[in-house]
Amino acid sequence: MASMNATEPPTARPLRLDTAQSDFEATFAQRLHWSADTDAAFEARVADILADVRARGDAAVLDYTQRFDALPAASVAELEIDPATLRAAFEALPAAQRDALQQAAARIRRYHEAQLEACGRSWQYRDDDGTLLGQKVTPLDRVGIYVPGGKAAYPSSVLMNAIPAHVAGVGEIIMVVPTPRGERNMLVLAAAHVAGVTRAFTIGGAQAVAALAYGTATVPPVDKITGPGNAYVAAAKRRVFGTVGIDMIAGPSEILVLADGSTPPDWVAMDLFSQAEHDELAQSILLCPDAAYLDAVQAAIDRLLPTLPRAAIIAASLNGRGMLVRTRSMEEACALSNRIAPEHLEVASREPQRWEPLLKHAGAIFLGAYTSESLGDYCAGPNHVLPTSGTARFSSPLGVYDFQKRSSLIEVSADGAQRLGRIASVLAHGEGLQAHARAAELRLEDQP
Amino acid sequence: MASMNATEPPTARPLRLDTAQSDFEATFAQRLHWSADTDAAFEARVADILADVRARGDAAVLDYTQRFDALPAASVAELEIDPATLRAAFEALPAAQRDALQQAAARIRRYHEAQLEACGRSWQYRDDDGTLLGQKVTPLDRVGIYVPGGKAAYPSSVLMNAIPAHVAGVGEIIMVVPTPRGERNMLVLAAAHVAGVTRAFTIGGAQAVAALAYGTATVPPVDKITGPGNAYVAAAKRRVFGTVGIDMIAGPSEILVLADGSTPPDWVAMDLFSQAEHDELAQSILLCPDAAYLDAVQAAIDRLLPTLPRAAIIAASLNGRGMLVRTRSMEEACALSNRIAPEHLEVASREPQRWEPLLKHAGAIFLGAYTSESLGDYCAGPNHVLPTSGTARFSSPLGVYDFQKRSSLIEVSADGAQRLGRIASVLAHGEGLQAHARAAELRLEDQP
Coiled coil where (chains A, B) (predicted)? Predict the structure, then answer.
């Protein structure tokens, strides 16, 4: 943890780099590096918790909840929060928070409904011979949503995980949220009400992941588990992958800002802060061809940092992992961004639509000066669960598609079976799978 | 391994069950059970191979290839098969195999192009205030395809993995295929040519997965690895998940046939065989309300089994894991199928469209008597890489979508920033993230 000195305000000096420096590549690569490697002893502890919950069910969940969350209970049923309690939490909120939650939820819902419409529907076509081919898209039956408790309790995460599941048509949405020493976050409970959570349990850690994956007498087994968590949760999710589906394992949050110098430096500084304030490992990077603009952002950092309550965390993040990089051009900045494949990518430019087509890999792309990442985090509509640590090279924001699955549909006509049977027979014999060949040949009118 | 007795042909007696039996649930559940659990020593061996390839690159790949595949080489470059060799393998095939490969590839390509059209395109919309929201869909840059060698060398797998990647627009498709003692399967090489593989290496096992995930001096690092393999390959894929994307870890292959008694029993028996011949752990299940029909299928099994070259494997699979289950009704059979979530689901009925809407979870659904699973395996068009072991509850056939990723697009207008900024500010303060709030507030015309 960063320490704050009561007399001197923290200072933040993101590393200044220039792509024209001879040692740029090595320095840049080293600063980017982050690894989630855990040791074998840690892995074994997680494996033990999973095995224990699988074997002992509710009793094991109770033990670990008492041990890790200091939350004693006589039964897991006592750890369930009923829907009336979720609703009451919502109704007890100040009007401004109630409205903000509802408006954010409505916008997130609308976006994910558009996503369902664009890419989540069944489709089919027929060949000339009447053979039908297609895919049927159906929702998952039941999913589990992990919501972190304690200092990182984010009601917006509840909206972002539960709403896409709800829009997809998932039958039951089970939320788990640890409540250390019984402290409940009322905004989290209210968000669960707004987002359509079906059942909620105040359990967390690897034991909650195990309960959702295997089921216990009280916690129903789910088909998929999504949502962020600490190292125990991440390791547990990785281990139950296959028994259930999981979303991507998240690393520290990151922002990359591409700037052409047209956005007020204060705005960009605050956007870098808003990533850095998550935790000391978060990474904020600014790429810009204009060295004077980088100076202006640094000056804004110096001026604005002391005004923020989380200044110590921000300073630790920027000093440890932040970078202000002068590039030769905006084109080079775009190419560098593609190598990083950032979670959040802001295009702080007066011509964002000029650069957008050059950007291939990113979780979310925020175009233009007005599109602060924080608007996307809460209420623009798109999901804030995004691929981190370069995984945007191969993975996508959480979406309706994560709560659906597809089944191929094939109905071969009698005519189609004649044409296809001959092809299948040749290939099956070529692979030495004669029963496959015979199954195709039995459907031929002129059997070989 | 099953043993063949030269004098007595193998017999296959799938377990006969009736859903009305009192012990049905327990017996059925026990017979369904399959676990991929591996021990810690095995996991450690795989971890060591991965770490070694990560550290020593090509040299480690060469060592393991010599040790495990008895294939010595002076460099990994020697293990690359150039495109001309792939083409030559294709051109040297008998005409019937060449044609079958090309026709299968054309049909698989057409299906995946329809899939791209139906669910793989970018989309966007604008709010009244001009704010743009959407998602940009882009292909992965480079993927790796694992193709098993040795006895289970399946050219159809090359088509099924490479064609969706090619249709998605993936820039480079790197194939790895072990060639124990240097034995190359010409159909596999020819299929790589037909499917548009970019580069091919004769390496396999955990070392090939490591080379693709981390890259070596010779093997380029990829963004995602797909394709089936043995326990080493599966464990290695699971471990590199996060560094690269992976497809589902496959268990033994399965078929479930729902029959109303209208399909010739010989056809259904051969379809059960065509799954069972894959390996002794493969599972074939027939559900039917008509006991006499189950008798007729058993008689067909008895008559047809001795005619098949792989009779011993088929018998071992059916005797160890096969089931013929009498259900109370077709409706009950559909409900049971949903609990199993089979990889392959045949609806051997004269009214397949009546039952299809009742079927929620399956990798691929084969409708009607003419639609043998083997037609789908090779050439109907849909992918034969399907979720196994009940994972169809939450996952999908391999498809174009596995070789694409999505980036959210957000461009908030100046007007939009006023409305959204107020919502984001309330929620960010509620989460204690003041820099997030300030970033939104800086864009307000009337700053609080």
Answer: none
Which residue has 């849909």 as its token pair?
A: B382
**DSSP annotation string for B101-151:** HHHHHHHHHHHHHHHHHHH-S-EEEE-TTS-EEEEEEEE-SEEEEE---GG
Q: Single out the catalytic residue among B254, B277, B280, B343.
A: B343
**How confident is residue A447, by pLDDT bands cut at 50, 70 and 90?**
low
Q: B348-388, pLDDT tens digit by residue? A: 999 999 999 999 999 999 999 999 999 999 999 999 999 99
Indicate the class that CATH gives domain B15-34+251-380.
alpha beta
Q: What is the pLDDT of residues A126-143, one digit of tens each?
A: 999 999 999 999 999 999
Q: Classify residue A58 by burial, with Cβ atoms within 10 Å: 0-12, 13-18, 19+.
A: middle
CA terminus-to-terminus distance, chain B: 75
Select the residue of B310, B367, B426 nearest A410 (Cβ to Cβ).
B367
Task: Establish whether domains B15-34+251-380 and B40-122+139-246 are of one fold.
Answer: yes
Q: Name the strand (E) or helix (H) holding A265.
A: helix A265-276
The mean predicted confidence, pLDDT, of chain A is: 94
Tell me how far apart the 2 most distant CA atoms of chain A are, in Å: 93
Q: Does B444 touch chain A (CB under 8 A)?
A: no
At B43 the pLDDT is 87
Chain B's closest residue to A269, CA to CA, is B439
Count of Cβ atoms closer than 10 Å to residue A47 Cβ: 15
Domain ranges of chain A: 15-34+251-380, 40-246, 412-442
How far, in whole angstroms, is CA B245 from its chain's centroid? 14
Q: Does A408 touch chain B (CB under 8 A)?
A: yes
Give the gap in angstroms from C-alpha B64 to the nearest C-alpha of chain A: 24
> CA A298 to CA A353: how far, in whole Å?
27
A1: pLDDT confidence band, cut at 50, 70 and 90? very low
Q: Was domain A40-246 assigned CATH 3.40.50.2020?
A: no
Residue B289 CB partners (closer than 8 Å, separation 6+): B260, B261, B326, B327, B328, B329, B330, B332, B333
Is A344 one of the annotated active-site residues of the chain?
Answer: yes
Per-residue pLDDT tens digits for A371-420: 999 999 999 999 999 999 999 999 999 999 999 999 999 999 999 999 99
Residues contributing to the annotated binding site of B for NAD(+):
146, 207, 230
pLDDT digits (tens, 9 = 90+) for A158-178: 999 999 999 999 999 999 999
What is the average per-residue pLDDT within A42-59? 96
B433 contact partners, CB below 8 Å, separation of at least 6: A274, A277, A278, A310
pLDDT at site B7? 56
Are the CB atoms for B210 and B54 separated by under 8 Å? yes
Condensed to tens digits (0 to 9), the pLDDT of residues A278-305 reads 999 999 999 999 999 999 999 999 999 9
- Which of A112, A166, A344, A384 is an active site residue? A344
**CB nearest B380 (choices: A309, A412, A437):** A412
User: What's the burial of B6, exposed, middle or buried (CB within 10 Å: 0-12/13-18/19+)?
Assistant: exposed
Whether chain B has a CB inside 8 Å of the CB on A443: the answer is yes
In DSSP terms, A326 is beta-bridged to: A18, A288
The C-alpha of B65 sits at a distance from chain A's nearest C-alpha, in angstroms, of 24
* Tokens 């224990």 sit on residue: A52
- At residue A9 the predicted structure's pLDDT band, cuts being 50, 70 and 90, is confident
Residues 270-289 of A with CB under 8 A from B: 270-271, 273-274, 276-278
Spans of chain B below 50 pLDDT: 1-5
Residue closest to B341 by CA, chosen among B397, B402, B270, B263: B397
Mean pLDDT calculated for residue range A333-347: 97
Chain A CB contacts of B436 under 8 Å are 274, 277, 374, 377-378
